[in-house]
Design goal:
Number of helices: 10
Helix content: 25-40%
CATH architecture of the largest domain: 3-Layer(aba) Sandwich
Oligomer: single chain
Largest sheet: 5 strands, mixed
Shape: globular
Number of domains: 3
CATH superfamily of the largest domain: Periplasmic binding protein-like II
Number of strands: 14
């Protein structure tokens, strides 16, 4: 008879171990909002729960839990510790899968590469979100690779990681006055930095998460050429801005097997050719 062993997450701070049970206690307090309810959910008495909290606070040297007449909640230090715990738990539960992320702009690149790996037997987990959210997940240790469509992020973090160009894109501009709809994806920071450098009057009137909405608003905007070519947005009247050509960058976030193969497949996809 074979037995599968699954590890349990502990966190070690300066040689002091914060146990799995103590971390579970913080999670229960966050979810239940009271000492009594959290203790009941964990199947322990309230005094024992208090003991776990005190031990965790003594080990970290920080107040992790705050209680008031409205209930119990985690302090910022408690929330930060719990985020680390849950990130590690996620990786342990899914330790054999390759975790990759991209945005709506890089979606086809990411999905094509993940499909190629899956066909060869590599299990993949894919997130499609914004660059900002994907970078937060990367910082929390929840990703093995992230594909950035805002190359400025890669430049800003050049001392932290080395990215690989997997393609290129360019922005289209539809001018319609100083009020802009800012798309939540793509090299928007590059676009608005250009306006600032040129001294062009502009105001962001709204953020758009569905690109097709750009076709319905009487506002100026920038949009990626790749989204237009894919038929996601029509962008009538928008003109290509040669100064805005930029790289699509794949950034490895771990030494997990499969990362190099994923990046190679993303480059071979050829979905964002230059020119």
């Amino acid at each position: 008879m074979s037995m599968a062993w699954k590890g349990r997450v502990v966190i070690v701070e300066e040689g002091v171990e914060i146990t799995h049970r103590q971390l579970e206690t913080l999670a229960a307090l966050r979810d239940r909002g009271s000492m009594k309810k959290a203790a009941s959910a964990l199947g322990i008495s309230t005094p024992v729960l208090h003991k776990y909290v005190r031990e965790a606070e003594a080990k970290t040297g920080a107040e992790l839990v705050s209680s008031s007449s409205r209930g119990t909640s985690l302090t910022p230090e408690g929330k930060a510790l719990l985020r680390r715990f849950e990130s590690l738990e996620l990786r342990l539960q899914d330790e054999d899968a390759l975790r990759v992320a991209g945005t709506l702009v890089s979606e086809r690149c990411v999905l094509t590469a993940a499909t190629a790996l899956s066909a060869c037997g590599t299990d993949c987990r894919v997130w499609i979100s914004t660059d900002e959210q994907n970078l937060r997940m990367m910082d929390e240790g929840r990703l093995d690779c992230v594909v950035l469509d805002d190359a400025l992020y890669a430049m800003e973090r050049a001392d932290m990681f080395e990215g690989t160009e997997v393609g290129a894109d360019v922005l289209l501009h539809r001018p319609c006055g100083p009020d802009y709809a800012r798309l939540a994806f793509g090299a928007q920071r590059l676009a608005f930095r250009h306006l600032e450098q040129k001294g062009v009057e502009h105001r962001v009137a709204c953020t758009v998460f569905e690109p097709a909405v750009l076709d319905t608003v009487d506002l100026s905007y920038f949009v990626n050429r790749s989204l237009v070519r894919r038929g996601i947005v029509k962008a009538h009247g928008a003109r290509e801005q040669r100064w805005s050509q930029h790289s699509i960058i794949a950034v490895p976030c771990s030494e997990s097997t499969g990362v190099d193969r994923f990046i190679s497949e993303a480059r071979k996809a050829g979905l964002y050719p230059k020119g």
